Amino acid sequence: MEQPPGFVAQGESRGFVCRLQKALYGLKQSPRAWFGRLSSVLHKFGMVRSEADHSVFYRHSSTNQCIYLVVYVDDIVITRDDQRGICDLKQHLFQHFQTKDLGRLKYFLGIEVAQSKSGIAISRRKYALDILEETGVLNCKPIDTPMDPNTKLMPNQGESFSDPGRYRRLVGKLNYLTMTRPDISFAVSVVSQFLNSPCDSHWDAVVRILRYIKGSPGRGIVYENRGHNNVVAYTDADWAGCPSDRRSTSGYCVLIGGNLISWKSKKQSVVARSSAEAEYRAMALTTCELIWLKQLLDELKFCKIESMSHICDNQAAVIASNPVFHERTKHIEIDCHFIREKILSGQIVTSFVNSNDQLADIFTKSLRGPRISCICTKLDAYDIYAPA
User: Fold this and answer.
1) What span, in angstroms and rounded, lies between the C-alpha atoms of 363 and 152?
2) For position 10, what pLDDT does the model report?
3) Which residues on neighbouring strands pair with residue 199, listed in sequence order?
4) DSSP for 323-385?
5) I need a labelling partner for 198 at 20 to 30 A (CA). Which of 20, 79, 124, 164 fits?
6) Cα–Cα dist 84/86, whole Å
């Protein structure tokens, strides 16, 4: 800490120290101040902040080489093919901040990264095992499904849980785990709906998720180079699946180059009057994600995207391409126009898929063990720590 400019001590100043009145950490403006400082340093180096994702910075050179930088608070990942530029960027950061180069990426925000010539695998095995140990179910018997397909959870179902805070903390940790575990996204989204007043039955559902995780704590996602950059999205909706308010659940997953990039399981905000309406709302949600991903990929010059495939297992996909409005779609005209506009512009191409090949099923309903394993295999969600 240095003496403020212009400050003159009265009398003898030898032996005096400065008393810190406020620290940057803990103040409301501290995140903005820190990010503004980091952004200005990166801009001096020639990095440009992405408009699609403000946590991403990039720089393209005249020789078609580029540098990508991703920041989360004060944790930074730098990648791409300009090795000389990456070394210069590190030295530039060393001059302005007290930074430490950890070398090849192995661990980031609880995500374990394994790299090889065949691809990259990410998982949260240690994080999952820590949750099991903290909860006391590390030695439990594993099961093959995160949620019982025959059980429907409802509010005020049974006795109130004795420790709601523990329930909320555990569900929050599981929600963070879904970033590398798409197979538990739907189950975690269901138990997240009872954070306000959890019951014993809801706690039992959370314990069941933990027992499922115990079966494959190292399950993560594998990324490989498959020789193409096609963008494909699978969309599904479980019409009136919630027994308490009869709202539907939207689910989607987006694959770029055959690799799983984005997924979501979310309860719809309004009640759908028909399965077509539920599918349309799910398709609109997925279309927004596709447009955002296209903007990000175009900005980073990652690959050239002409059109993106939007696959659905409902006749709503056929209606979206039909220029004539049907009676059953009058009340969802905004979603119809939004999706149809993207179809006519050539950005989105909708198609129909059989329900057996619908990968988004895992984000909208609880499935049996063999079905979960089948979808996880197609999504390249493997347990790399499992014995061969």
Assistant:
1) 16
2) 67
3) 160
4) SSPPGGGGGGHHHHHHHHHHHHTTSEEEEE--GGG-GGGGGTS---HHHHHHHHHHTTEEETT
5) 124
6) 5
- Other Cβ atoms less than 10 A from the Cβ of 271: the count is 13
Q: What is residue 322's predicted lDDT score, i.e. its pLDDT?
A: 58
Q: How far is the C-alpha of 56 from the C-alpha of 35, rounded, in Å? A: 12
Beta bridge partners of 219: 383
| Pick from 71, 95, 149: nearest CA to 361 | 149
Radius of gyration of the chain (CA): 25
Phi, psi of 129 (to 5 degrees): -65, -35
Given a cut of 60, is residue 317 above it in pLDDT?
no
- Cβ-based neighbours of 91, under 8 Å, separated by 6 or more: none
* Cα–Cα dist 236/358, whole Å: 8
Assess whether pLDDT exceeds 90 at residue 315.
Answer: no
**Contact between residue 252 and residue 233 where contact means Cβ atoms under 8 Å apart:** yes
Q: Let me know: does 116 contact 106? Beta carbons within 8 Å.
A: no
Say how far apart CA 353 and CA 167 lie, in whole Å: 38
Q: What is the pLDDT of residues 116-129, one digit of tens each?
A: 888 999 999 999 99
Distance, in Å, from the CA atom of 69 to the CA atom of 79, rounded to the nearest integer, reads: 7
Residue 26: phi, psi to the nearest 5?
A: 100, -15
Alpha-carbon gap, residue 380 to 2, rounded angstroms = 53
